[in-house]
Amino acid sequence: MKNILNTINSPQDLKGLSILELEQLAQELRHFIINIVSTKEGHLGASLGVVELTIALHYVFNAPKDKLIWDVGHQAYGHKILTGRRENFETNRRLNGISGFPNIFESEFDAFGTGHSSTSISAALGMAMAAQILGNKTQQHIAVIGDASIASGMAFEALNHAGVTNANLLVVLNDNAIGIDPSIGALKDYLTQTKNGKELNRDNIFEALNFDYSGPVNGHDLSKLISELNRLKNVEGPKFLHIVTTKGKGLKKAEEDQITYHAPGKFDAQTGDRITIKTENSPLKYQDVFGHTMIELAEQNDKIVGITPAMPTGSSLKYMIAKMPNRAFDVGIAEQHAVTLAAGMAKEGLIPFCNIYSTFLQRAYDQVIHDVAIQKLPVIFCLDRAGLVGNDGATHHGVFDIAFLRCIPNLLIYAPMNELDLRNIMYTAQLGLNLPIAIRYPRGIGEIIDWKQPFEKIKMGKAKTLKKGTVTAVLSIGTLGNIVNFAVDKLPVYKKEQVGHYNMQFIKPLDIKLLHDICRTYDTLLTYEDGVINGGFGSAIGEFVLKNNYTTKVKMCGIGDSFIEHGKTQELKTLAKIDEASILNTILSTL
Ligand SMILES: Cc1ncc(C[n+]2csc(CCOP(=O)(O)OP(=O)(O)O)c2C)c(N)n1
Ligand SMILES: CC(=O)[C@@H](O)[C@H](O)COP(=O)(O)O
Ligand SMILES: [Mg+2]
């Protein structure tokens, strides 16, 4: 049989195909995605689930003239492959390769950049309203959003607004009943009832919001999808199509274990078996240290509760959710709610550990200030994925948190250098700090195999002197300090004596006494952080030096004033000059 996928270089090439040919194309597209993701890694289940939808949308609509927006964008692999990126799809998420998410700089077919969830309806509505204002009557606007993403506040805000406009907007709800972890909440229950034909005499929620609702439609039935999309194309105003799909469709293992196969790493393309590297006698991931320590602490202190907005597996709060379901909560993709929920609990005397990926906390900035910090509520924020996260790229790096949190009064900020520090700060925080604290730690494995040591209390605002010197002091924050240690070790002996290294631990409050000593001793301070230097930890040190009229030189090292793209974390560290070799060179340049 002739391969059809190889003949599709743009959606125009789909237009003349029969339904049978489109169905063949769907199978080829699935295999193509499976083959590449099995070796190059990336998000799998979501793209497999929307293969038919992707083909149907590109068959019925005319992108790039019509605007197609993929919420989160982790399901857009099929879209990328059909829109001229088949040949370089194997560079997906790699350094200098294509992005794992839609990106307006990559292709005119990517109508809007995504990565963080629940933005698609607002963006599509904005485009639809722009089209009206600009007198463009023929352009179509489609937002494709998942069942977990539509439950987020931003999506509700957009639906609420769209319903009182006559904008030409189509929202396609791709309902597979799962996010990364199973979807949660009353809306999920409602959707389940709708799918089962049991709406229990309720009005349809989406019709109540003034959308023209249709569905549920089997999202793997190409002819049904095409005929429904063709009908909706000619309906005026906001429209809502509810489709039902299976995440991971077409790969048995991915259908059976949808959580793991959201982004499974390398696997055998035929059997679906994951290729895991044996990790015996290697350190755990920071996430697992967090997850197990939560249980340990919660067993000792019954005031402790855990909160995650939709990342129980990623954050490892899943262990506590499984063991203590009444004290650990997945609240769905709801970062703002997660923060204020934690504030409410803290106000009533509970000790909430609110675990949020650094990048997703950006969503809840006002809540951190308005609901937590102003009221000095002792919420313990565990900011997972702080620093460079690697292949997810610019939308996901946790590089802004130090800069955007440092300016908030009443908030303590701490970065552990290793697992023991992480455990000890978690222990210390739950003893009672009377202030909120943000604990930032990176994605991935740590440094220490024997991490389960007895807890020790950490002194607030105290840095650790790792090594004394005479000429240059390196001031580091977090796990980057380990790389600085390696770099310092590589210095020639007579130069090594000149270099001091301080693990500052607290970005706020700074260890002022030690900083005075350091400024009196050294000619140059080198600050190292895995976050932006504009406004970050280095800026804090620079401000200290300026305020106290020291003449000490300060060189700030970290992420500069540009977005870091995708690639292996190690590659990105090298680009940002926060890898061992660059640190060594920078230190040498100051001696
Ligand atoms: C604001 C935000 N919070 C969390 C995430 C992490 N995240 C990525 S995909 C996803 C689940 C999305 O589920 P759904 O919308 O149902 O799409 P599906 O994967 O099922 O296609 C989550 C929680 C994110 N990208 N953005
Ligand atoms: C699309 C998305 O936002 C998530 O799937 C994210 O890629 C998860 O990142 P981790 O792999 O670091 O949990
Ligand atoms: Mg889903």
UniProtKB/TrEMBL annotation:
Its EC number is 2.2.1.7. Its cofactor is thiamine diphosphate; Mg(2+). Thiamine diphosphate binds at H74, G115, H116, S117, A148, S149, N176, E335. One of its GO terms (molecular function) is 1-deoxy-D-xylulose-5-phosphate synthase activity. Pathway: Metabolic intermediate biosynthesis; 1-deoxy-D-xylulose 5-phosphate biosynthesis; 1-deoxy-D-xylulose 5-phosphate from D-glyceraldehyde 3-phosphate and pyruvate: step 1/1. It is an enzyme of class 2 (transferase). The keyword GTP-binding does not apply. Catalyzes the acyloin condensation reaction between C atoms 2 and 3 of pyruvate and glyceraldehyde 3-phosphate to yield 1-deoxy-D-xylulose-5-phosphate (DXP). HAMAP family: DXP_synth (MF_00315). This is 1-deoxy-D-xylulose-5-phosphate synthase. It comes from Wenyingzhuangia heitensis. The lineage of its organism: Bacteria, Pseudomonadati, Bacteroidota, Flavobacteriia, Flavobacteriales.
